[in-house]
Amino acid sequence: MVTALRATIAFVLLAGFYVLVAAVLGAAVLVDVAAVQHITAGSVKIAIVLTLAALALLRGLILVNRRGNQVEPGVAVGREDEPVLWQTVEELATRVGTRPPDEIRLVAEVNAAVSEDTSWMGLLAGRRTMYVGLPLLMTLTVDEMRAVLGHELGHYSGAHTRLGAPVYRGRIAVLAAVRSLENHPFIQKLFSLYARLFLRVSLAVSRRQELEADRFAAAVASREAAGNALRKVHGTADVWNLYMERYVGMTGMAGSRPADLFGGFRALVDVHRAEIAQADGAGEETSPYDSHPSLPQRLVAIAALEDVSHVGNPRPASALLRDPALTANAVEQTFWTDEALTLRPLPWEEMVAQGMYMGLNDEAVQDLSVAGQRIVGGPAPSLDAALEALARGQAAALHEELVRLDWRVSPDLVAKVLARAIEGVLIRNGKARWTLSWTGPATLLDAAGKKVDVDEYAARIAADPTQVAGAREWLARMDVSLLPGAGTPGSQQTAVPSP
Question: Are strands 433-435 and 443-445 parallel, antiparallel or unpaired?
């Protein structure tokens, strides 16, 4: 009852927004007419300002409501493709008391969602689509996945999708109106105040609807499964973000991309399974403008529900798929842009080795070599020229040349670039290699598996010209060439003796 009342208020406020827009446009027309009939400097100025504001407002709304050809994410799977998944969704739809979706799409996101094409401000139902994130199928159990699916179907049962679609588009329109009036502060303030009221009311409705949908999740799968699913969805999202930033973020380096996107994610999940299962949203900040209640709020609400008898199914949720590997490959193709698909697919170990070299070492080797040549001369840039500059006590000159090459000014700039450059020549000459780790950042190791750390040594070389001779001797003992183009990343490794 409370949700319905708030939803009605949200619809009234949305209608009021368009009345406000009409009022501004009407006022602009009236002022323009009055200004023409009684021309004065003040009336013309007011007419111009109000007309420009009305045009900006109108343009913003037209642009935000213009619908282009939207490409649906992921892969659509029919009943013949994924019969068990479809049977599960249809069974749960019956239990929830709603019509099942017309289409199921598997997506490369840590999310599950439903949408419904509606008309007449959501009064008439249309085509339904359910989106199921493949990463969730890789981390949840069947019971937990049923809770997630039951939650999404609950949005259909409560007519949330029909009510939510126009309100969601209304939010976009309201925000677009505020942005379009940035050059008209007085009118923008009026719309900003209205936008805050509308957003607070409509998002409060959204939060209430999420709690209602959670009741459906617990009803079809048990309180325990619903609570565990919520924890794992939050935990999986954190691991997915880490995966995107630390690992998939290397895509493009050395002209490569990972050959097995979801295989890598599975390996990272295996390391973080305990954290995923124990996610509790501690420290999660809340705001009146949140679309979902916080995780602790949702867990408390679920714990207060009456539990139902349930025969558990602890199998991995991937059991709902006919061929998980084949499905993962199909969804992976939709994850990459056309440009990324042209890159070389490499095993994770190779991509990390080459990606880390290109991201950390390649530029350091090249720029330090160029800086050294500029200072001491020579037929071509080389790291030996940079060492010669240091041997002559010209570290300050190297610093200035590196800054000219777009390195950021820093007291230890030469030492840091020298360390990365030394790592680079060790890698190019097969003495070290960046090694993949799913428990932390990639590590530079030699053939014996010993960590290679030259930061402190590079700092001594940069600070003391007498250290250069020892550095050259150390590199020579390993048969490491300082000439340009010597070696290639990924050459056969040997052990690195201590400098």
Answer: antiparallel
